Amino acid sequence: MLKNFKPIVIVAGDPKSVFLELYFKSLKKKKFKNPLILIINERILLEQMKDLKYDFKLNKLDLNRLNFKNLNNKKINVINVPFHKKFISEYIYESFEIALALIKKNNKINLINGPINKKKILKRRYLGITEYLDFKTKSKGNTVMLIYNKNLAVSPLTTHLPLKKVHKYINKQKIINHVKQISSFYKKKFNVVPKIGITGLNPHCESNFYKSEEERIIAPTIEYLSKKKFKVSGPYAADTIFLKDKMKKFDVILGMYHDQVLTPIKSIFGFNAINITLGLPFIRVSPDHGPNLEMFLKNKSNPESLIQAIKFLDK
User: Fold this and answer.
1) Helix 19-29 crosses helix 304-313 at what angle (to 10 degrees)?
2) Which domains does the chain have, with CATH numbers?
3) Quick check: 61 and 77 in contact, CB under 8 A?
4) Which has the minimum average pLDDT: 47-61, 63-77, 176-190, 257-271?
5) Is the dihedral of CA 75, 80, 83, 87 positive or negative?
6) Per DSSP, what are the bridge partners of residue 58?
C-alpha cells in the first residue's frame, strides 16, 4: 500500500439508479491505486451485481473497527447500510452520515456520491446534495458547484432553483465568493490563475426594466474583481459565449443559473465532465449525470464520467 494513499468514500446513492452499473464497469476498465469504500445496502449491491452479471468478491467492513491502511481494491470494500423501500430518504441520509463520520476519522478521505432523485429523497429540505453538505459541514453557504473538464469548466451561480426565483439570489457577494472559490481551487490544484468569463442573466445582457441585473449587479462586480487582480471579464450574452472562438479564451464560464451553463457543457463534452463541490473541508466529486431510471439494469450506460471522477481523486 502506498505510504500517502487517500481513501475514496463512495455513497452509492439512489437504489434505482445506473450508478452501480457504472461502478462495476469502472472497476473492470481501470485499476485505481487508492482504496475505494462503497457505502450501500449489501442486498442491493448483490442483487444488481447478479442482474447485471458481474462477479466481484466483497470485503465487508465494520465502521467501528476500520483500518484504512489494510484496504485495497482486490475486492469491493463495502459498508452495509440498512434499507427499507418505504424509507429511501432515511437510507440516503444515513449513507451520507456514515461517509461524513469516516471523513472525520481520516482527513485524507475524499468523497464521491452517486446521483439521487432530489424531489423524492431531499423532499425540499435542501436544493441538492451541494446544499445538504454545505449545511452538514457548516460551510455557511460558501460552497460552489463546478462542472469540470480540463479544457473548460462551468459554474452556475444558483443551482436547483426555479427560474422565477433566480434573479432574487443574484448579488455582489455571491459572485465574489464564486470567483474566489474557483480561483483558489485552480491555484491550489493546477497552480494557475483561471480566466473566468461571466455571463449576464437576461437575453443579450439587457432587459426592458429600468435597470437590469447586468447594470445594477453583474457588471459592477466584475469591475470590482478586476481591480482586485482576478482574471474576470463580462458580462457576456449566454447565447454566444459558448461559440468555439469565444469559449477557448476561458478556463471557466460562470453563469447565473443551472441550465444556462450545464446544457452547453454537456452538449460539448458529453460524459467527460465531473461535478466538484468547492468550499467544503474535503473534496467532493460526483459524476455528471442523474439516476437515469429509464436505463436502470439495461447495462447500456457510459461509465466515463464516474471513471473521470475517481481518477481525479486517485492521485
Assistant:
1) 60
2) 1-143+279-315 (3.40.718.10), 145-276 (3.40.718.10)
3) yes
4) 63-77
5) negative
6) 76
Omega prior to 235 cis, within 30 of 0: yes
pLDDT tens digits, residue range 112-141?
A: 999 887 766 666 678 788 888 999 999 988
Residue 2 has pLDDT above 50, yes or no: no
- pLDDT at 181 (0 to 100): 97
Beta-ladder partners of 132: none
Cell of 278: 468547492
